[in-house]
């Protein structure tokens, strides 16, 4: 039976791979992005995660198109990397508002419909950086670490209604962003990874698809790393 799935930031990179995986699974998939772009077969909705009214309008459009959201993948995020002494209030605020508060907004709105349905899956896309830390990414690491606390609190709040809340924490993934890094820098990253390679966006999508599946119904409040072993022990 096809489900109503919403992937935020699903127009490129990891988010796009996740949306495409759900489409292949036969689900009804909606994708939000600032540009309003989406993979073929997905319902495209323009949404600004920092604007509560825009989030509400996006959910209204998705619900009219394919019913209440049964699977939410909160993936939308930005970076404003710089060392802490150079980091402005704007650099901090924009990342926290988009990555952490934006995820709160969509999770809260999705939970309304899930509570009525008495079922649902909420999956946050975090990062190994949120567990390990990274120089120049104080804002990003804080936003991604915050998703873990949010998911675990939601798992406790919503579990009695058969709603799970989990986190997927990707490591270094081959995307357009990593492809432009110098070869020496890519090689240095790979040296830190026990599996000796970067992951693919499809490998992250596979983990998300499993968490959304019926046979993962007893998994909640978990952090699933897809990082080649980089963050083990964290």
Structure description:
The chain is of the alpha/beta class. It is built from 8 helices and 9 strands. The protein has helices spanning 13-24, 52-66, 89-117, 129-132, 138-158, 176-179, 183-192, 201-212, and strands spanning 4-8, 28-33, 43-46, 71-74, 120-125, 163-170, 173-174, 199-200, 223-226. The strands form 2 sheets. A 7-stranded parallel β-sheet has the order 3-2-1-4-5-6-9, with helices on both faces. It has a two-stranded parallel ribbon with strand order 7-8. It starts with a strand and ends in an 8-residue tail after the last strand. It is an enzyme of class 1 (oxidoreductase).
Keywords:
seven-stranded parallel sheet, Rossmann fold, alpha/beta, two-stranded parallel sheet, 3-oxoacyl-[acyl-carrier-protein] reductase (NADPH) activity, 8 helices, fatty acid metabolism, NAD binding, NADP, 234 residues, lipid biosynthesis
Mean pLDDT: 95
Query: What would you call the structural class?
Result: alpha/beta
End-to-end distance = 36 Å
β-strand amount: 15-25%
What CATH architecture do you see? 3-Layer(aba) Sandwich
Radius of gyration: 17 Å
What is the spatial order of strands in the main beta sheet? 3-2-1-4-5-6-9
Spans of at least 5 consecutive residues whose pLDDT stays below 50 are none
Discrete helix count: 8
Can you tell me the number of structural domains? 1
CATH class: Alpha Beta
Which fold does the CATH topology refer to?
A: Rossmann fold
The CATH superfamily is NAD(P)-binding Rossmann-like Domain
Helix-residue proportion: 40-55%
Number of strands: 9
* General form: globular
């Amino acid at each position: 039976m096809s489900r109503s799935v919403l992937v935020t930031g699903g127009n490129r990179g990891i988010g796009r791979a996740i949306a495409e995986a759900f489409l292949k699974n036969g689900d009804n998939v909606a994708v939000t992005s600032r540009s309003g772009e989406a993979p073929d077969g997905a319902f495209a909705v323009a949404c600004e995660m920092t604007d509560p009214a825009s989030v509400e309008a996006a959910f209204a459009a998705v619900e009219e198109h394919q019913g209440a959201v049964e699977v939410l993948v909160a993936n939308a995020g930005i970076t404003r990397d710089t060392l802490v002494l150079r980091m402005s209030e704007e650099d901090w605020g924009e990342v926290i508002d988009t990555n952490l508060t934006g995820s709160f907004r969509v999770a809260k709105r999705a939970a309304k419909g899930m509570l009525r349905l008495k079922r649902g899956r909420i999956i946050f896309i975090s990062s190994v950086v949120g567990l390990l830390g990274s120089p120049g990414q104080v804002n990003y690491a804080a936003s991604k670490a915050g998703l873990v606390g949010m998911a675990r609190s939601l798992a406790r709040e919503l579990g009695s209604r058969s709603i799970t809340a989990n986190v997927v924490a990707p490591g270094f993934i081959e995307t357009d962003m990593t492809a432009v890094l110098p070869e020496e820098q890519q090689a240095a990253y790979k040296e830190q990874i026990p599996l000796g390679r970067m992951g693919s966006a499809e490998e992250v999508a596979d983990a998300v698809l499993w968490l959304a599946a019926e046979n993962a119904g007893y998994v909640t409040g978990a952090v699933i790393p897809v990082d080649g072993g980089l963050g083990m022990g964290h």
